[in-house]
Fold these 2 entries.
Entry 1:
Amino acid sequence: MKFFIDTANLEQIKEAQELGILDGVTTNPSLMAKEGITGAENILKHYLNICNLVDGDVSAEVIATDYEGMIKQGEELAALHPKIVVKIPMIADGVKACKYFSDKEIRTNVTLVFSAGQALLAAKAGATYMSPFIGRLDDISTDGLGLIADIRHIYDNYGFETQILAASVRHTMHIMDCAKIGADVMTGPLSAIKGLLKHPLTDSGLAQFLADYAKGN
Ligand code: E4P
């Protein structure tokens, strides 16, 4: 299972990268704005900074919502750095743009997926990654993890190679449940990733080992 971090915060990206378990980064316009990164030029520079920090894929989102605009922006983003994956919204023109990029071997991440039907379309259009937003579904009393399971089932039925990128992960248990279901990738905040480290028996066991070692020294 690949681990992506869902942030535009360079410190957090660096911390996850240094942990040695990071496979990539996802961002979106809201995450950029949260870091005070605004304006097309600054956003492009920030993508480059992120690419220079990590080893894995970096999703960079188009802002255009029409086919021609998405192609133009997507090609600019893809040319920026080999690690860039073009992030495209799940709308009709986005599906067309995804097929265009897939034919040109430009990698894509189809975002804002909330149904299995949308996931099926993204796979048929040749998406590299497809991002169902599980936390936002949970927020409206809809089963986000159930959606991941349905998509896993459908993709496996037909051998689709599109990777299920569980997005809008909010906490550590989301990560574990996605792993059990078989999501290919999860993207979440650093806090959710670090939550995997925690166990009180690890802490007390280590304290005991250190105390016992100290007795003989
Ligand atoms: C995915 O690529 C999105 O950036 C993200 O996971 C959205 O998460 P949120 O629902 O916590 O905003």
Entry 2:
Amino acid sequence: MPAADKYLFEMKEDCGVFGVYGHPEAANLTYLGLYALQHRGQEGAGICSSDGKQLYIEKSMGLVADVFTERRLKRLPGYMAIGHNRYSTAGGSSLKNVQPLAANFSLGSVAIAHNGNLVNAAELRSRLEDEGAIFHSTSDSEVIVHLTAHIHGESFRHRLIHALRDVSGAFSLLILREKELIAVRDPYGVRPLSLGRFDGAHVLASETCAFDLIGAEHVRDVEPGEMLIINERGLESLKAINSVRRAHCVFEFIYFARPDSSIFGGTVVNGVRKELGRQLARESSVDADLVIPVPDSGMPAALGYAEESGIPFDLGLIRNHYVGRTFIEPKQSIRHFGVKIKLNPVRKILKGKRVVVVDDSIVRGTTSKKIVKMIRETGGASEVHLRISSPPTIAPCFYGIDTPTRKELIASTHMIEEIRRFVTADSLAYLSLEGLRSALSNPDDYCYACFTNDYPISFPGEHLQQMDLFVGV
Ligand code: AMP
């Protein structure tokens, strides 16, 4: 297998990270932080702590609450810790990829928790393997550990900065060593990473909803290209990598981040989502009796749509919260089944009504089709108008959102009218790209690649080939 496609199925992951420095309950706080970030990854969870002398690590496949028993948390002593939730991917499910990844090398022990995806990981990995490196996982994050170990230099920070200048792509990283915690964000700031304060301790999290849970104060974002080093001397900020432009992932606002979080300069996600709904109503109004959300992803946009259009809002679909996200089920057959056990249409609300159904995105189209059908057939709606609070998803993400291959994205191969027929809606409208941009305060600072096919972080030549294989063209 050529090096370029060897790690193909390990390339897509979005995750949640959390870290604490300077608190006697570091591991317990990290557990709570990961709990709040569970939506960012359900495949596996791990925590690594340090008491200033050595690292302790516990990790397993599964949800945070299942992975960490009280006994397990007691095995994580110390005043600093980092934690990680890993997202489920198509083929990369295995314990060896659950983070933090820990390693020992000449400068001591190190553990790493990574959110994002490196686009040149395969290339760097083959180079490192040619030089004798032995990899333990198939995760792109391990490349950073090996690069750091291979670079000559006196200090860890010097080596790490040089390693990070070699990697390309998205990384919001937390790194734990025996006596320090390091946080660093890629120069584009693709994935969020925030700094907070709690009870005299420094805390770091992918999203501020994790700060809310423990009662921490949100201080600021870790800046794109910035490295924070936190140790007994305090907090030091270094400009580690030059940032020429920002490319925050707009899909964090559309779908991924929790609505109660503030990300990318302190913007509340819920506010943006509602504005996307309002804009959608301005662009694609329709005569209807009722606006309903696809829970939970369409909720804020549906509220915005209803507000702007003046059409009454109601909960016409009720979600069973005890079923996992259908999107991440590995087999097509399970996914179809999943929609039925997850959502129930409320006939009393829907019967005889012309219904606007709002969701955040259409990926393959399979969920939307099931939903339209159940609203019409089981719910008894007379008309079903589907409104999507983002532009058509036409291109896969290589920076960390788990999207299928290009050919599986229905909008990459079908016109809107064809998609409407496929999902059997009476009408279908997506938000325009301009409409999406108008809801953001600095629209040029975002990555829209999944809607435009215009990737802000270029891929090395070898990866271009991989992208072709990946997208099946
Ligand atoms: P589909 O049936 O493939 O079109 O899936 C559409 C649904 O998946 C929508 O309700 C979205 O909220 C949701 N969705 C979009 N992107 C993702 C993602 N990366 N992970 C999980 N769910 C997603």
